What does this fold into?
Amino acid sequence: MAGVSTKEIKNRIRSMESTKQITKAMEMVAASKLRHAQARVTNSRPYFEILHATIIDIVDSNSDFSSPYLVKRDVKKSLYIVIAGDRGLAGGYNSNILKLVESELSDKNAVVLPIGKKALDFFRSRKTELLTEMYAEAAAISIGDCFSIAKQLSKAYCNGEFDEIIIGYTDFISVLSQSPATLRLLPMLQSAGEKKHSDIVYEPGCEEVFAAIVPEYLGGILYGALCESRAAEQAARRTAMDAATQNAEEMIADLSLKFNQARQAAITQEITEIVAGS
It folds into this structure.
């Protein structure tokens, strides 16, 4: 800071104070959005859990049951659904999930369905084959969009266009902890245990009910993953903005100290010059 005038230091302090106000405001906005995102995560779980229980009951209680959704194939082509954010300033939220998916794609013939501007820009810059660019704004995707995507992908899987479908998202563990993860949606795994007896009767039949419920189940998983990712993004942004605010406060304190030292040095210099002149 040697050789810097008090005016320049004061301008830097004003600049840091403006930055601090911005980061503090962004932290408060992220905290507000986080509360809503956590509520969506909680509200989406019962629907998913009921569908999951129904699917497990059908599979585990029918010995002669068969479905294309359960058949494991030789993987020739994979589809990855990748959920990232629309903006940055969220710590490692975007980079962590994108790096995880990129490492899995390195040895696969895969197509990517990006959800979120950051995911779209990332895979477009690497010239990865994209299924569609319709979902470039993650915040605008509704639960209806999730079920529409699930039905389209279920049909494509049954037609043999893909041999496996995997979703990459960020698991919201807590406000201070978010973990990138991948989950295979199709083919679905069958339990290794013995078949169980069930008193539930499905009409018109187990296979018909199963075929109808799987796309709904996948839509529920996709919506749940989207809610988890949104909550994780807001938590990461809140943490990042809180850290930025604290750093700004530390820099303001340091600059204030430098400003006082420079002002004191200037006053001492003036006194010395007056005494020497007299």
Q: What stands out?
A: The mean pLDDT is 85. DSSP finds five helices and four strands in the chain.
